């Protein structure tokens, strides 16, 4: 289930809106994740809960994924993407430091 935060339009003040949205997201996540969270704790499986998107992050094998998929509350199971950072190529003028920038705009002459 997803949190209904449509009432935020009627709330005055940024702090009050923030509290409302936070509380709604947290309440929905706690209710909808309770049985899965209990299962994971009972089986000593490390997990991380993300109330903002009402999701879990878990390292799991195929057997665990099948068990989790059997829960009525589970809407989707996604594999995390693999991110690889590109190698950083040094520029030919690799001495581009703050000092270089200051010299480049002729700050010492000012």
Order of helices and strands: HEEHH
Tell me, briefly, the overall form: flat
> Roughly how many Å is the radius of gyration?
24 Å
Structural class label: mainly alpha
Enumerate how many helices there are, as a single number. 3
Structural write-up:
By secondary structure, the protein is mainly alpha-helical. It has a two-stranded antiparallel sheet with strand order 1-2. The longest helix is centred in the N-terminal third of the chain and has 29 residues.
Quick summary of this structure?
With 110 residues, the chain is mostly helical. The protein has helices at residues 14-42, 62-69, 98-104; strands at residues 47-50, 55-58. The chain has a two-stranded antiparallel ribbon.
Keywords:
110 residues, 40% helix, two-stranded antiparallel sheet
Architecture blueprint of SSEs:
Layout: H1 14-42, E1 47-50, E2 55-58, H2 62-69, H3 98-104
Antiparallel strand pairs: 1-2
């Amino acid at each position: 289930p997803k949190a209904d935060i449509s009432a935020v339009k009627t709330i005055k003040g940024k702090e009050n809106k923030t509290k409302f949205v936070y509380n709604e997201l947290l309440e929905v996540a706690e209710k909808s994740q309770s049985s899965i969270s209990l299962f994971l704790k009972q089986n000593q499986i490390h997990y991380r809960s993300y109330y903002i998107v009402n999701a879990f992050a878990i390292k799991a094998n195929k057997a665990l994924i099948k068990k989790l998929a059997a829960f009525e509350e589970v809407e989707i199971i996604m594999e995390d993407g693999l991110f690889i950072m590109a190698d950083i190529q040094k520029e030919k003028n690799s001495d581009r430091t703050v000092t270089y920038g200051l010299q480049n705009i002729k700050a010492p002459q000012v």
